[in-house]
Design brief:
Layout (H helix, E strand, L loop, with lengths): L4 E4 L2 E4 L2 E2 L9 H14 L5 E5 L8 H4 L4 E5 L19 E4 L6 H12 L4 E2 L7 H8 L2 E6 L11 H9 L3 E5 L12 E3 L6 H10 L1 H22 L4 H10 L5
Parallel strand pairs: 4-5, 6-7, 6-8, 8-9, 9-10
Antiparallel strand pairs: 1-2, 2-3
Length: about 240
């Protein structure tokens, strides 16, 4: 499960808003269709897997009795970042590969007005293409889909570290485990653009710091919440699968 689906105050919340709320990231009809398909799958579901501690899936077992949430530990990354820090490919300051919503477009325009170079494909790209684009910039940019969005993009941060780039996030206050591996900037402060420029100037040490933080975080998480082998053992018994 990658979508933020919660059950709060007697309501289903999708991406932090009551089901059916309008936004320019995902049409409300698409959201309702996804929920319909999910409910149709319930007879065949044993649990939801989540990567690390996101999405939280708050009270999901209340909404869907009998469905557990099992965390998969974070993937390990290489510990030798030096080869990834070449400046030969870095022709831009920042890289943003997400879908461009109205809120995101506003912040991207402010950065460009400040003289910061941002590469943004403005279309869906493959994983390999995204990795190549990441290396064109010094830092990966994370911008929430809309104002008030609560979570960091866990996969964007990991993909950035895999390609030798740290991530900075604008306007988020996430406290999940991945927050220790990225820089979150408060855009309510007058000097937030200056702080972005400071991060760009120090991009190499920022990456090394975040990579080390990621390694330490993954080890702690693995100890606290080991891989859920019991789910597969249970499945092998019920489906008569030989070990």
């Amino acid at each position: 499960m990658t979508e933020h689906l919660d059950f709060q105050h007697g309501q289903i919340y999708f991406h932090g808003a009551p089901l059916g709320s309008r936004n320019d990231y995902m049409h409300s009809t698409t959201i309702l269709t996804r929920m319909k398909h999910l409910l149709e799958c319930l007879p065949y579901l044993r649990c939801f897997f989540v990567l690390g501690d996101l999405p939280e899936l708050r009270n999901i077992s209340t909404m869907l009795p009998g469905i557990d949430v099992c965390a998969i530990p974070f993937p390990t990354l290489e510990d030798s970042p030096c080869e990834s820090l070449s400046t030969s490919d870095t022709v831009h300051d920042l890289v943003f590969t997400g879908a461009v919503t109205e809120y995101r477009a506003k912040l991207l325009a402010l950065l460009e007005e400040a003289g910061i170079s941002v590469v943004c494909p403005r279309r869906f790209v493959s994983r390999n293409h995204r990795n190549a684009i990441n290396r064109f910039g010094k830092i990966i940019l994370n911008i929430p889909q809309r104002e008030g969005w609560q979570w960091l993009s866990l996969m964007r941060i990991i993909a950035g570290l895999q390609t030798g780039r740290a991530t900075i996030s604008l306007g988020t206050q996430d406290t999940s485990h991945i927050a220790s591996c990225c820089t979150q900037l408060d855009i309510r402060e007058d000097d937030w653009v200056s702080k972005v420029k400071e991060c760009i100037g120090d991009w190499k040490s920022l990456y090394v710091r975040d990579l080390l933080s990621y390694s330490a975080m993954t080890q702690r998480f693995q100890q606290e919440r080991p891989f859920p082998h019991y789910i597969f053992e249970y499945w092998s018994v019920t489906d008569r699968v030989c070990h």
